Amino acid sequence: MLDRMTTANYHHTVASALQMPSVKQAPVIERLHYLMQECAVVAAAVRDNAMDDGEPLDPAELIDLISDYQVVLDLLDEAFNVEPAQQNGACSIG
Q1: pLDDT tens column, 10-58
Q2: Dihedral, CA atoms, 44, 50, 53, 56, nearest 10 degrees?
Q3: Inter-residue contact 57 to 50 (CB < 8 Å)
Q4: How far apart are the first and last CA of the chain?
């Protein structure tokens, strides 16, 4: 069975084969991947501390963290659903 990171990397590879990010977007996406991996490491540390101490995560903290995560998901969903730019060199304003 594949773990989440392997699955995410697989989906990233498949998606990358379909459309490469722009020169402008590529470093931003790379940075986001790095930060998401860092978040997973920190979340694992939170879990480990809770398990070591026998203290569950505070419900208010969990709600705040889920809210922060949802903001990221919503922003990525908006980025995914942007209408493609016109290819004829024209730009729209407004």
Answers
A1: 555 555 456 888 999 999 999 999 999 999 999 999 999 999 999 999 9
A2: -170
A3: yes
A4: 48
Per-residue pLDDT of 54-63, as tens digits, reads 999 999 999 9
Structural contact between residues 2 and 10, judged by C-beta atoms closer than 8 angstroms:
yes
Q: How far apart are CA 5 and CA 40, in angstroms?
A: 10
**CA dist 40 → 19, 62, 92 (Å):** 26, 14, 39
Give the C-alpha separation, 29 to 49, whole Å: 30
- Residue 84 corresponds to which tokens in the numbers above? 């493609």
CB atoms within 10 A of CB 39: 14
Q: Is 65 exposed, middle or buried (0-12, 13-18, 19+ CB in 10 A)?
A: middle
The CA distance from 84 to 88, in Å, is: 12
